[in-house]
Design goal:
The protein has helices at about 15-25, 45-50, 60-70, 90-95, 110-120, 135-140, 150-155, 190-195, 200-210, 215-220, 230-235, 250-270, and strands spanning about 10, 30-35, 55-60, 75-80, 100-105, 125-130, 160-165, 170-175, 180-185. It is an alpha/beta fold. A 7-stranded mixed sheet has the order 4-3-2-5-6-9-7. It has a two-stranded antiparallel ribbon with strand order 1-8. It binds S-adenosylmethionine.
Length: about 270
Amino acid sequence: MPTRSKLGQNFLRDSRAVGRIVTALGDLDGHTVVEIGPGRGAITGALAAKAAHVVAVEFDRELAAPLRSQFPSERVSIVEQDVLEFDFAAARAQAGARLRVAGNLPYYITSPILRKLAASHASLDTAVLMVQREVGDRVTASPGSRDYGLLSVLVQAHGPVEPLFTLPPEAFTPPPQVHSTVLRWRFAPRFQELGVEESGFLRFVGRAFAQKRKTLANNLRAAGVAPAPALAMRQAGIDAQARAESLSIELLAAVWRTLSAELAGKKGESS
Ligand code: SAM
């Protein structure tokens, strides 16, 4: 059967890597795992051997049908759907506990999938995900490094993420043009500890990183978030010329706490 490169179909053929992915999810006894993009089932079978239930979400009809024959067990449900439309909250409710997630991701939609998982964090426990190595570097980057940016903050704000191992292109059929990294992401959102409300803070972060070469103050002014962000930055102990790429999540939260309090005060004055 031909593979559809448009759908990011690079099938894993390294059985040791399959074992390491499943092991990285921890003890699966009694747990439900959602697998993103089961493809030809390279990881699905190993998950089904350990978990109570595997919900495998595959977009390609031509792969979903054979998967149903390959895994007739009630422990495996093949859902033919775009994972970006998948209802993790409903799956969690059905499972009765937070979900584990596994996937050798279709790389063309890695960022949207990471955003979807972040938005579904209340339903999730741990995700073990294969991503393009460069994306793995961005997701796990520290402030001030070349790779640190919006994706790093978005993911890390929802819990710690660590790179587990890297695979060369030859570990897949057909080989992709890039190396791949397997990440483990434990969902433990930091918003309460940071003293910020999730959606407002994430909107702020999106604007803070809007243009890479601009300073934080200029990005916030351009987005209309704050006409004079200097005071909030000073209060957080941040240089007025700082760029968002140099700031930790804690410092970004400190700026947003001051700015959102200022904005709430102004709203109160004008009403
Ligand atoms: N898990 C298999 C493996 O490791 O061999 C396949 C991984 S392959 C990199 C990505 C899989 O995701 C393909 O089976 C592809 O059809 C599927 N896929 C692509 N876009 C998808 C989407 N929007 N929702 C769900 N699955 C998708």
